[in-house]
Design brief:
It is built from seven helices and 13 strands. It has about 280 residues and is an alpha/beta fold. It folds into two domains: about 180 residues, Spore Coat Polysaccharide Biosynthesis Protein SpsA, Chain A (Alpha-Beta Complex), CATH 3.90.550; about 80 residues, no CATH class. It has a seven-stranded mixed beta sheet, with helices on both faces. β7 and β8 form a beta hairpin. The longest helix has 30 residues. The protein is globular, with a radius of gyration of 20 Å. About 5% of the residues have low confidence.
């Protein structure tokens, strides 16, 4: 049974080796789709790849980054695909669980088993997000289940929103859950968090504009008052984000006021269009 890893990247020279080091010695094939990186990401990967396990494909950099993720999984030749981001790390516990699950599945799957018989073709796993140097276990941030391990040809990216995950192609297919978390380090520092915070807020504004949302008095109330207060209450109080200390407070607060940025960006785009 061949296991492929699919990774889409753009300017990840500071993260990619930590990610690759957690999978390199037990994965059969690594497929990387590079979205026109302008740093030293590709050079770093080539220096690291002494066993020539890594296949690199070059694409242009696009805001709908899931399109490059879809291209990465389409290039995989393994029976099973493990999808990763460059800022993620596979712990030893998760590695052992994946190997055990796939080995057991291989031994007990008969030659006549098909998708029509509700075969298990995908696994969701919990993702442990880190912020300001610590893991976020509350605030609705954990377990953050996401489908990452799946049989080749069983899933696809809808490529509609910036925060989506893959979905099963067939309604008859089964999706099970793994136990050990995937470690996620999206923000090496607060400055990088703010950069991504603004970037994704503008992506959301683009999405809303494409779906016909327009500036209005009601939307001002909604995006400046209703949504921020609702989100802060949901993450910090209801989901106990306060138990994550200072990091939990900052994360809940800034994820709440992102609605302000989204609306201002939407209004800005509307104003520019009228000109």
């Amino acid at each position: 049974m061949i296991i492929s890893v699919a990774i889409a990247i753009h300017n990840e020279e500071k993260n990619i080796i930590r990610c690759l080091s957690s999978i390199y010695n037990w994965i059969d094939e690594i497929v990387i789709v590079d979205g026109a990186s302008t740093d030293h990401t590709i050079e770093v990967i080539k220096q690291f790849d002494v066993k020539h396990k890594i296949k690199i494909f070059h694409e242009r950099h696009i805001s709908m980054f899931h399109k490059n993720k879809q291209k990465a999984i389409e290039q995989c030749t393994g029976q099973w695909i493990f999808q990763l981001d460059a800022d993620e790390v596979v712990s030893t516990e998760l590695k052992n669980e994946i190997i055990s699950v796939l080995s057991t599945l291989s031994k007990h799957t008969s030659m006549t088993t098909t998708i029509n018989q509700c075969e298990t073709v995908a696994y969701s796993l919990p993702r442990l997000n880190h912020f300001l140097g610590q893991p976020l276990r509350k605030g609705g941030q954990y377990p953050d289940y996401t489908i990452r391990l799946y049989k080749n040809g069983s899933v696809r990216f809808p490529c509609k929103t910036v925060h989506e995950q893959v979905e099963l192609i067939s309604k008859k297919e089964k999706n099970k859950i793994l136990t050990h978390p995937l470690l996620h380090y999206p923000y090496p520092n607060f400055r990088e968090y703010l950069r991504k915070w603004i970037q994704y807020s503008y992506f959301e504004a683009d999405f809303l504009k494409q779906h016909g949302l327009k500036p209005s008095l009601w939307n001002i109330k909604k995006y400046f008052f209703v949504l921020p207060f609702w989100w802060f209450f949901k993450t910090y109080i209801r989901h106990k984000g306060f138990q994550d200390g200072f990091a939990g407070l900052v994360f809940s607060l800034f994820s709440s006021i992102r609605f302000w940025v989204i609306y201002v960006a939407l209004a800005e785009k509307k104003s520019a269009h009228l000109k």
